[in-house]
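S.,

Sequence below, as promised.
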Amino acid sequence: MSESTQQHRQAAPTSVRCAVITVSDTRTLENDRGGEMLSTSLSGAGHQVVRREIVPDDPAKIHPLVASLADAATMDAVLVTGGTGIAARDQTYETISQMLTKSLPGYGELFRMLSYADIGPAAMLSRTIGGVIGPVVVLPMHGSPAVVRLALDKLILPELAHLVYEARK
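The prediction came back faster than expected:
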């Protein structure tokens, strides 16, 4: 790890204010295992889950919710589960990619690489994209608990505070 990366990680906030959004036409707070895992893991790592929402897989509902949560005065990161596949109803990629002021291609690339190690070529079905809206980090992912765990353990928890630090510079 470079000296500057290490310095940035040390300067990063110890607690990040997060919103967790589940994009689904069928999930409820009672059966949303992916969203619950995200919330529990973020809290367990010392981050604040300021808001948790479930929204239908509809751009007219996803866009205003993400836009309202991407407010640097109240939020540092928006994590989204669901709607990243290729089914006709999956609209997370189209909606969020148009909202990003800067994309983080490496997030999706690393996510698919790690998924490939677990599930093989089916990893290409993931349309995970990440980036920022202004200074707020936005990280969508597939909604299944196994994929959420992979994203949390290998990408999000190790780098979330550093991502927020960089986005706010």
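The beta strands are 17-23, 48-55, 77-81, 102-103, 131-133, 136-141.

Coffee later?
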